[in-house]
Amino acid sequence: MKTRDFLRRAAGAAAVVLCGLALPAMADTLEDIKKAGKIRVAIDTAIPPFGMTDEKMQPAGSDVDLAKLLAKDMGVQLEIVTTTGPSRIPMLQTNKADIVVSTLSITPDRAKVIDFSIPYADHPSVVAGLKGVSIKSLADLEGKKVAVVRGTTQDADLTQQAKGAQIVRYEDDATMALAVASGQVDILATARSLLPAISKKNPARTVEPKITMQTNWLAIGVRKDDPKLLAWINDWVKTNLKNGKLAAIYKQHHGVDIPTDELLKKGGA
User: What is the pTM of this model?
Assistant: First the structure.
């Protein structure tokens, strides 16, 4: 009996050790960032006014200013890692960036592979078209060509809700804007805030919102199992919503106000 008891206890101890070894270690990107003295932020610089390059060919826009403020408050240097819509999440997953600040809407599918901060801005998603184009519902897109950026929430919404549309997918907003300006397409699905910049490409082909598909909420993307960094960012977003700094950045670049109180409620404040 003693031998059996010993063997049973030894087996149990070994199982505990093996289980312990199997548990994934929590990442501590926040500590890594502070040790490195810089934070790598993935930003798409081809979607004004969120991200763009100024006359000196330097990154600019609301996402850039948000990232600058975040890095300053964290006490580290900012390194912008240029990305596109489809590559935002892969860059985070492959550790090419520490966080993503790039018009990243919170969606259930994305939440399966990355974590989101509390939202820092709203982001209405619309179907837009030339003034003479008559569209009142998604059903009116039957048989019509509709431009969209691949991998965006607009792409997903159109695929699910406008099955009769001829969806033309582009790799980034800049390419899609050129397609609209050159007359390749008359209808597009995108963020409402991007319409002025798209129309500016060719004022003779100004686009206007026709249908609001949904209001998305923009947040900062963080890798899974990185609780310290996520907690720091959540506190930072709440603080800068309350003090008005995030609202001021958005107003400067977009000309509209963000719903600060609603954003704070979504963040549990």
Answer: 0.72
Residue 21 lies in a domain: no
61 and 50 Cβ atoms separated by less than 8 Å: yes
Domain hosting 185: range is: 124-216
If asked whether residues 196 and 135 sit together in one domain, one would say: yes
Per-residue pLDDT of the chain (269 residues; tens, 9 = 90+): 445 554 455 444 444 334 444 434 567 999 999 999 999 999 999 888 899 999 999 999 999 999 999 999 999 999 999 999 889 999 999 999 999 999 999 999 999 999 999 999 998 889 999 999 999 999 999 999 999 999 888 999 999 999 899 999 999 988 999 999 999 999 999 988 888 889 989 999 999 999 989 888 999 999 999 999 999 999 999 999 999 999 999 999 988 889 999 999 988 76
DSSP secondary structure code for residue 25 in this structure? P
Number of other residues whose CB lies within 10 A of the CB of residue 143? 8
Cβ–Cβ < 8 Å for 155, 148: yes
Q: How many domains, in total, are found in the chain?
A: 2
Phi, psi values for residue 94, rounded to 5°? -95, 10
The candidate with the shortest Cα–Cα distance to 223, out of 60, 25, 56, is 25
Q: Look at residue 24 and tell me if it is in a domain.
A: no
145 and 156 share a domain?
Answer: yes
